[in-house]
Amino acid sequence: MKKLDASEKKRRRLNIKLYLLAVIFLFIIVALTCRVAFIKIKHGADYEKKAMVQRLNKGLDLITSANRGSIFDRNLKVIAASNTVYNLILDIRILADQERKELDKIFSEVSKFFGLDIKDLNNYLARDKNNELVNDTHYLVAKKDISRKKMTEFDKKNLKGIYFEATTKRFYAHNDLASQVIGFIRGDELCGLEKKYNNYLTGVSGRIIRKYDMQNNIFSRNIEPQDGYSLVTTLDINIQKFAQEEVEKVGEENEAKHAAIIVMNPKTGEIIAMAQYPDFDLNNPMDVNGISSQKIKSELLNLKSDEQLNNLYSIWNNFCINGTFESGSIFKPIVVSMALEQNVINKNSSFYCSGVTKVADTKIRCWKRNGHGAQDITHVLSNSCNSGMIQIIQRLGREKFYKYQRDFGYGEKTGIDLPAELSAKSLIYDLEKLNPVELATCSMGQGFNNTPIQALNAFAAVINGGNLMQPYLVSEIIDSDSNVIKKNEPKVIKKVISQETSDFVRTALKNVLTEGTAKTGIIEGYNIGGKTGTGEQGKRGSGIHTYSFIGYLTVEEPRYIAMALIDRPPKEKIPSAVPSIKNIFEKIIKYKQIQSESENKNLVEESLLIDDFKGKNVKEVIKKLNEQNLDYEVVGSEGIYVANQMPIARTLIENGVKVYLYLSDEKKDEKLKLISVPNVLDLNIEQAMDLLKKNNFEYVIVNKKNEDDEDDESNNKLKVVEQMPEAGVKLESGTQIRLKVK
Q: Cis omega before residue 647 (within 30°)?
């Protein structure tokens, strides 16, 4: 036998090892194959179902939108609301598992009911080269904005792979009503009240979580959304429509860049109407055809879409709060109020206008070249005399003017509850720049700019008793059950002038209509006050102006103050804003059935304006009320001063209306002893008088018969049936007690 060498032995050993490894590997493969076969036969169906369920349940968690809160006018008429609508959802994974015959039936029903193309529906089930679904999802939106009625009708068919998703759709009941004020929602962009109160309006979204079992049955968990809160605005839809019709008319007629009308309650700051030209359709703000200006509409239709959008932004902006203009003469009553308040002029001051006033080295002309001659303050205002105004502001001085101009809100935001309000701070003079000529031109409302809302709010302070108010548009925020979540109330920013100054200027401005520059604003039977204005925009001599008028109804008791602006019409057009306010006031008078002066004559003769008693001595107030033959009631156990009163000051009241005085002892003098009012009810006059005298009170007797009869027997027959103040209230010695006898 041939002996094997070492290398051959090594090779054979390696071959044996390889053979053994091959046998072991083959055994493992056979064993695994057998195991897989066993699992497939024994548990294959179960595992396939589990795998399918895992695939079906991939990421199905839907967000459901809450209904956005509504927006109402002051009379709870709907301005904006959200409807529940539905999206048609295709469950692609479920549909892909259906037999062709069943799938054709489903798609046929969907196509016929919703007008969808069957070809498009089938394309949603397309597969890629690896035979995987291109749209591998449970959630594919096939159609939007389906009504509840249509959704309910179709849902009864109970088709596999088809379901509906509830969502909301915003709509605006009056299309273009107060469009810049209400605002709209465009994707993530919001404007107007929709933006300012978005956190209240939005609500809380819900969720739908969908799961499938091994038999493809659906299990859902719905977390219902919580609807948003609603806004009750201060707007009156009818008055808003009056303003909008008027502003569109004057804007179109005069080809103005802007036109605006604001109607406000001068005492509270409530915005009743805020209209602007041009406006747009809130339901489709991107539609150029919805713009009210024919000129702008035709210009935009010739632009590309991106250029159109840039121009639309300027139309969406609220000119009333972020546009600026030079006031002109509507600023003159404010300067007069400043000077009266500082006592540098008085009600009897007079001024002379020769037609030109020299300030430093500059000659400033009055609009009436020949001059107005000698005038009192009332006629300086009614004639809109520039020379008279220069003399007034020179007496006031730049430091005081600078302070008062800011006190009246110029250069500051009013705080109105709208986004993007402009302060215009950079458009008024700093103190160091108020040189003699600049100060003189400021007296005429020239040389500085302001927003429309600033100008109107400052003017309101002149006529409402001197209170600079914070304008506002939302009075209440309510939930779905009308519970008040938040309430906005009138807020006084600052007391800028006294009641006395306000009363004088408010009355003087009546002459602007009766014999001044606004005669076309007269409404027969109604006393209206106001002031016209013309401000040059841009460089002097440009010939581009803004024409304005602020009026209030009525002079005696201003319930409405309104401002009309015609901004930058072509040079050849010289319009007046006065007729616009007249037209609106005539409609308001009819709508609110406001009685004329003649109809109110008897009422006024028998009525009076109640004084402001707050902070005054109770003893003196009671004496005043007794002199006016007014009934009253003292609220509180003791006090020296009046803390509050009802009705409020400057309210017109008739005989028979009771005045309530709320006591305060904050300023109580420790040395002053208060005495408890005795009870004299049911006592005869003599007894009542004796008891009051013993307690150091005076008395006033009303409804007494035979007042000139001093016979004791006659007096003894009359008894006290009512006393004011009532027994137990602690007051000063010598206070009058009002006794009603019968």
A: yes
